[in-house]
Amino acid sequence: MAEEKETKSKKTLPSEVELKKEEKIEKVVEEKPVEGVKVEEKPKKEKVEAKEEKKEKPKKEKKKAEAVVNIYTSFNNTIVHVTDMSGKTLTKVTGGMVTKHGRLKANPTIAMFIAKRISENLQNIGVGSLYFRIRAKTRNPAPGPGANAIIKSLSREGFKILNILDTTRFPRGGPKKKGGRRGRRP
User: Residue 166: in which H helix or E strand, if any?
Assistant: First the structure.
């Protein structure tokens, strides 16, 4: 019985010689078209597959733009001015644009709202990384309370921080300080 099953399976499979004959016949038919009869050409599958592979490749992401964030913080106000690398203004937000109360303009909470507005504007433009320039009032040893809050908020929004620079001005001898000869008295 085992021999009968083997012979049946051999009979159903075409032999290699028969396959080669069929291939030769197909080649001859493809090479010599009959005159007066139009033969439709079959599209080659290999080229179609190659085109599909090219489409599947992931496209390179565009490089995110860089910007400079100029933060001026005094104890009365916070001003944030964002420029591109050439100095062209992208957006500008101040404490007065966010709150009505004058006493709150230098508050860290208001600085967070300023940072949120700036991040919305910069994401629409396509900026991904930032340089920070912090400036306090001239002669002040430290910037106002809003500077750190702005930097922290923008980093949480997903911007890459490239550099933080303190650009506070200080006099080198320059003009005379106010207060008179005996200084400020209570």
Answer: strand 160-166
Residue type, 139: R
What total number of domains does the chain contain?
1
> What DSSP line would sit under 11-79, residue for residue?
HHSPPHHHHHHHHHHHHHHHHSPPTT---PPPPPHHHHHHHHHHHHSPPPPPPPEEEEEEEEE-SS-EE
Tens digits of residue pLDDT in 89-104: 999 999 999 999 988 8
- Rounded to the nearest 10°, the torsion over CA 87, 127, 66, 92 is 30
Q: What is the mean pLDDT of the chain?
A: 80
Residues of the domain holding 115: 64-83+94-99+108-131+143-169
The verdict on residue 8 lying in a domain is no
